[in-house]
Amino acid sequence: MENGEERIHLLKYRTYVFVWFGLVCLTMLTYTVAVGIHPGGWAVLVALAIAGTKSSLVLTYFMHLKSEKPLIFKVIIPLVLAVFLVFILLTFSDVVFRGVVE
Amino acid sequence: MDEVKAPAIEEAIDYTGAKLGMWLFILSELLLFGGMFILYAVHRYKSPGDFHHASTELDVFLGTLNTIILLTSSLSVAVSITAIQKGERRLSIVLLMVTMALGLLFLVNKGFEWTTKIGHGIYPNSPTLLARSKGEILFFGLYYVMTGLHGLHVLVGVCVLCVMLILIAKGKLTQMHFTPLENAGLYWHLVDIIWIFLYPLFYLIT
């Protein structure tokens, strides 16, 4: 019970509002790039880069990863992302080369 | 004296354990949606033209509006959690209500969107849709499955937040004991993150 204060590093309300504002700006950016600029072949990469940035903002500030002390919280997410990357690579190594290598 | 110390230690262990359990669940959810994102990527790679064409039929305004709604609900739940940690119970309750209202608003918009599409005869296995090209059929199939499963998550999130609201009102969640609310918040942010990816991939294909 007594450790209520020391275990949590409280963020200021203002910080959350700043993060929210950043997220809304990035949403407008992804919209403008897709609808106004038409980056062609780069479209998916730009969209995913912006979505990735937004996610990391949510993870770091809203989901408090920044202030989680135990190391495990910092390890499991890259681990799962690595597993996901392996899934993607294996799938696309099949999809892209099927019918090419005979 | 031992009896006094014991609960403190127990709760400290419980705190990390509860959070870790929630994170493992969230990561398994990410892989669940991840599988569908890979499916989407494969089909988009195979028929980029069809995906682009089908995407232009979606309502970009509603999609963008829903993105802003979910982002704002993430803000309100995050501040609500900090508020209860600071002992500002009333603010916490009000912001939880705001979060739930925004979640329901998201679902109402989604409902309008789906109803319009279904009104145009575009729904899984409909004759109008089956008459189209293979890529477009796949696009709308993935659209209904992925936004549908996401919508279900929003609905579950609203229910979970409702339970948290009742617990706060009953005094079961307090400044000293708020982990369930924090975990509910984590779930809500997960739903937000999934939408952050769904939005550009379905509404903004150029």
What would your notes on this structure say?
The complex is a heterodimer of chains A (102) and B (206). Helix content of chain A is 70%, strand content 0%. Chain A is built from three helices and no strands. In chain A, helix 1 (13-37) runs antiparallel to helix 2 (43-62). Chain B has 206 residues and is mostly helical. Chains A and B meet through helix 1, helix 2 and helix 3 of A and helix 1, helix 3 and helix 7 of B.
Question: What is the element layout, followed by pairings?
Answer:
The complex is a heterodimer of chains A (102) and B (206).
Chain A: H1 13-37, H2 43-62, H3 72-97
Helix pairs in contact in A: 1-2
Chain B: H1 2-46, H2 48-55, H3 60-85, H4 89-119, H5 127-130, H6 134-169, H7 179-203
Which features does this protein show?
heterodimer; A: 102 residues; mainly alpha; 3 helices; 70% helix; B: 206 residues; Four Helix Bundle (Hemerythrin (Met), subunit A); 7 helices
